[in-house]
Structures are given as C-alpha cells and as structure tokens.
C-alpha cells in the first residue's frame, strides 16, 4: 500500500496523524496554536504528494474500491467562493426538504429517543420527555444520517449499520442534556416555545436530568465498542464544560480576541457537530483522509452556525428570538459582531465595561454594533467558514446526500440574508 503523508491537523487539544491506506488512524493529543487557527491555517492536507489511486479491501465489505487521494483543492483547482448569497437568487430552503432523504431515519430516532433514556426514575423521565417532546430541528442526528448515507457508498455498504443509528441517538441525547444545563446557567424560562425543565421542576431536578442523560449516553457510547468514537464523543462532553468556563471567565471583557471567541464557539457548538459527522464516517469505515475532511466539514459548519446565531441576537426581533434582542450582550457575553464593532468605536468599550449601568445604555450599545459594521463583518466570517465547509465535502462522491449537506450550509447562511 502507498502511504499518504499529511500535515498534522490541529484543533482544540487534538492533533491527528494519518498514515497507511486509510483503513485506520491514530490520534495523539497536543495543544494548538491559536494564532495559526485565527489565520485559517488549520488542517490542510500536505499538497506535496501527487494524486494517487489507492485500493482498500476488507472482506466483510466486498470488492476493492478505488478512490482518489487528491485534496479538494486539487480536484477543483480554480474553485471560486461557493457561497455568495448576495449574488445568488435562491428559493428559501426548509429543513424538511433538506432532510427528506433521511426522514425515515429521523422518524425511527424520534420513536427511540424516549425509550432509550430509561425509566429508572419517573421524574427524570418526565423531564426528558419535556424537552424531547418540545421537538426541535434534530439537525445533529440528521447530519449523522446524511453523512452515513453519503459515505457508505464509498466502501460498498448497502445499508446503515446499527452503530450509525445508535450514534445519532447518542448525539441527540448529549445535545439535549447540554440544553437542559444551558437553560439552568442562562436562567432561561422558555425553550422551543415550552417552559424549560428547570422552570417546571426546579434547578436541582434539571441539573440531575442533564447529568442523567450525559451518563446514559455515555453508557450507550461505551457499548458501541469503538475506541476512536468513544474518545471523540467523550472529548465533546469535556468541551462543553470548557466552553462554559471560558465564557464565564470572559464576561464583559472587551479585550477578548476573535480567535478566543472562535475557540469558545468550537467548544460550545462546533465540537459536537464535528464529532457527529466524523463518527458517522468512521462507522462507514471510510479512509482516514475522508473521515478527517468530514470532521473539518462539521467543525467549519458548526462555527458558521454559531456565528449566524450570534448575528441573529442583534438582527431578529424579541418575538423571533424568544428572548430580548441583544440578550447575550446584556449578560456580558461578547460575540463576533461586538468584537468587530469594538475595533471601530471606543464608546462601545465604555458602555460594556460599565456593565450597562445607565438606562438605555444597552440599546445604545446594540445601535453601535449595527452602525459600525460589526454585523457585516460577522456575516463575512460566517460565509468564510461556510465556504470551507462546502470545500471539505469535495472528498465525497456526488449524491443527493452530499447535496443536502451542502444545502444545509447554505440554509444556515440564508438565516442572515
């Protein structure tokens, strides 16, 4: 087998090293360079090797499959920016349409979610039913199914495995547990149009319900018996806590740098999405290069998604948001629009550092963010990460599932069009 040489791909505290034919990978851990990440130099595959064709054969899967080791850039050497919604005239997409190809998978997941939580404690079950019953987009498990179906053709799998399906359930349980805890920390009264768990049952039960779901998901994760996926998802739970600590320690900090903000976004949002997509690729048994590109897709899409959410905190009405506009800023949580606006307007620093003690100061700060170009520059950042996400998908063969993954990135940007 011909070896593929790759640069170290770094993000968070993980550095991935890949070799051999891509049938396996090993992961080592290291700290990353924040400056390199801020400049967008994370994780590009070594371009010094020439394009080759590799054969990978596993008896349980079927005949050998041939695939290219060209990087996405080599496959599309002159690819222009793929997402420019200002120039595109697009019909509004819907998640229902984007997830049509995995609708049956999601129906099965919805039926299983409540039963797999367990019935040991009626109060905890009732709390779980409250948030599961509130619906939600199910975006993360949908990503698992879309990636699973987009990658299974590469190695000749005819159907999704039970591991694919269990992974989707685990991911949604972890996401739900994080929402329960987030609502406690943020003292939120409403979630998806319904009262939050802590509002109905109290903080003690909400914290225990979240802990229970984290523990239950970990048990199901261990039973998958795939060490690489176990490490991947376990890191996500650690990242949630790291993100909350970083956010709490930087409230009202006007010296917060963009790269620090992006790290926090990774911990709180992109880490789970990236693990969801890579875990699905691993269970499809694709080579390590493809699984890493799928991880990068999830990471870049997750970062773009969080930046868009932070923009909407300034541009949507309180009715659309379900909370007052600028609520993150009011709590001292400085996001991309604020960080960019602080570079232009010194008055904004004075208002934030006063912690909005004067009447009307929050409205003034929101007005400055809007008038100083903070929103526009944050939109550019969201588009930059979205473009990277779509480029990461070039490792997949054309299919309706890859198309849906691309369209999901565009759908996210359309929220701020």
Walk me through the structure:
Pfam families: polyprenyl_synt (PF00348). By secondary structure, this protein is mostly helical. Helices cover about 60% and strands about 5% of the residues. It is built from 19 helices and seven strands. The protein has helices at about 35-40, 70-75, 95-100, 105-115, 120-135, 140-155, 160-185, 195-200, 205-220, 225-250, 260-285, 290-315, 320, 325-330, 335-340, 345-355, 360-370, 375-390, 400-415; strands spanning about 10, 15, 25-30, 55, 65-70, 190, 195. It has a three-stranded antiparallel beta sheet with strand order 1-2-3, with no helix packed on it. Strands 4-5 form a two-stranded antiparallel sheet. β4 and β5 (about 65-70) form a beta hairpin. α15 (about 335-340) packs across α17. The longest helix has 28 residues, at about 290-315. It is globular. Residues about 1-80 have low confidence and may be disordered.
Tell me briefly what this model is.
This protein is mainly α and 417 residues long.
Going across the biggest sheet, name each strand in turn: 1-2-3
Low-confidence stretches: 1-81
What's the rounded overall pLDDT mean? Answer: 79
Number of strands: 7
Using the CA coordinates, give the radius of gyration: 22 Å
* Terminal CA distance: 48 Å
Q: Specify the biggest β-sheet.
A: 3 strands, antiparallel
Molecular shape:
globular
Helix amount? 55-70%
Strand content: 5-15%
The assigned structural class equals mainly alpha
Topology pattern, helix = H, strand = E? EEEHEEHHHHHHEEHHHHHHHHHHHH
């Amino acid at each position: 087998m011909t070896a593929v040489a790759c640069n170290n791909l770094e993000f968070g505290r993980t550095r991935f090293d890949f070799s051999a034919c891509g049938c396996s990978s090993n992961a080592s851990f290291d700290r990353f360079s924040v400056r390199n990440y801020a400049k967008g130099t994370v994780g590009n595959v070594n371009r010094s090797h020439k394009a080759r064709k590799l054969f990978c054969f596993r008896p349980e899967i079927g005949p050998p499959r041939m695939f290219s080791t060209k990087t996405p850039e080599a496959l599309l050497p002159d690819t222009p920016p793929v997402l420019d919604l200002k120039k595109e005239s697009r019909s509004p997409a819907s998640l229902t349409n984007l997830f049509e190809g995995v609708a049956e998978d999601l129906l099965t997941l919805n039926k299983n979610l409540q039963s797999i939580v367990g019935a040991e404690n009626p109060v905890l079950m009732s709390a779980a039913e409250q948030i599961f019953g509130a619906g939600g987009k199910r975006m993360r498990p949908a990503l698992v199914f879309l990636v699973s179906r987009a990658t299974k053709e590469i190695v000749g799998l005819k159907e999704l495995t039970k591991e694919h399906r269990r992974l989707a359930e685990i991911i949604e349980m972890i996401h739900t547990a994080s929402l329960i805890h987030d609502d406690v920390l943020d003292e939120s009264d409403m979630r998806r149009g319904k009262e939050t768990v802590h509002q109905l049952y109290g903080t003690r039960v909400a914290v225990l319900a979240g802990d229970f779901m984290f523990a239950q998901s970990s048990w199901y994760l261990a039973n998958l018996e795939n060490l690489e996926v176990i490490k991947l998802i376990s890191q996500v739970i650690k990242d949630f806590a790291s993100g909350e600590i970083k956010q709490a320690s930087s409230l009202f900090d006007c010296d917060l740098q963009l790269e620090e903000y992006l790290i926090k976004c990774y911990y709180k949002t992109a880490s789970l999405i990236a693990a969801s997509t890579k875990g699905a690729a691993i269970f499809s048994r694709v080579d390590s290069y493809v699984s890493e590109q799928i991880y990068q897709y999830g990471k870049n899409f997750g970062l773009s998604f969080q930046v868009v959410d932070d923009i909407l905190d300034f541009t949507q009405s309180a009715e659309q948001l379900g909370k007052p506009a600028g609520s993150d800023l009011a709590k001292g949580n400085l996001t991309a629009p604020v960080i960019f606006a602080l570079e232009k307007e010194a008055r904004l620093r004075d208002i934030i550092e006063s912690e909005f003690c004067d009447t009307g100061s929050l409205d003034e700060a929101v007005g400055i963010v809007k008038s100083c170009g903070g929103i526009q520059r944050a939109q550019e950042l969201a588009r930059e990460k979205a473009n990277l996400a779509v480029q990461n998908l070039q490792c997949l063969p054309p299919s309706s599932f890859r198309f849906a993954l691309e369209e999901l990135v565009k759908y996210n940007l359309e929220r701020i069009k």
